[in-house]
């Protein structure tokens, strides 16, 4: 399903919005994966698409990074987490974060999850679960999918499209 979606990368730009009198960047993504190779590949693709990306290869440090980002008033808009990791696995990490950060969007990646099957994570309100073997463009499409859901729910989107200039 996502393979047929055409991302509109040329229409995305880094946006700032006025919130409570402060200007904030709204394209922050945290990648949590114990494999430095996969984390680096995800980061490369997302940075090339214009996202502000932070990578943590330890789920405990990722939890601390989310809390520190929120306290510094620069929260992550999206977490892309591996399902199976040492110390704290992806679903447990997201369950813990959901208690305090209900508005956070999430994507679970794994070698054992079928692309698009969010059923095992429905109670965590995971926006998308993806097989790590899928093409990286699927990650960009999933981010756009979550953005569209936010727009439908009348919330601020993660990314706002650029209006073509005359």
Descriptive keywords:
166 residues; alpha/beta; 7 strands; two-stranded antiparallel ribbon
CATH topological fold name: Rossmann fold
CATH class: Alpha Beta
Helix content: 25-40%
The CATH architecture designation is 3-Layer(aba) Sandwich
The geometry reads as globular
The biggest sheet amounts to:
5 strands, parallel
How is this structure best described in words?
The protein has about 170 residues and is an alpha/beta fold. It has a single domain (about 25-150), classed as Response regulator (Rossmann fold, 3-Layer(aba) Sandwich), CATH 3.40.50.2300. The protein is built from 4 helices and 7 strands; from the N terminus they run βββαβαβαββα. It has helices spanning about 35-50, 60-70, 90-100, 135-150; strands at about 15-20, 20-25, 30, 50-55, 80, 105-110, 130. The strands form 2 sheets. It has a 5-stranded parallel β-sheet, sandwiched between helices. Strands 1-2 form a two-stranded antiparallel sheet. The longest helix is centred in the C-terminal third of the chain and has 16 residues, at about 135-150. The protein is globular. The N and C termini lie far apart (about 35 Å).
Task: Break the fold down into its secondary structure elements and pairings.
Layout: E1 16-19, E2 22-25, E3 28-32, H1 36-48, E4 52-56, H2 59-71, E5 78-82, H3 90-100, E6 105-110, E7 128-131, H4 137-152
Parallel strand pairs: 3-4, 3-5, 5-6, 6-7
Antiparallel strand pairs: 1-2
Q: How do you describe this structure in short?
A:
The protein has helices spanning about 35-50, 60-70, 90-100, 135-150; strands at about 15-20, 20-25, 30, 50-55, 80, 105-110, 130. The protein is α/β, with parallel strands linked by helices and about 170 residues long.
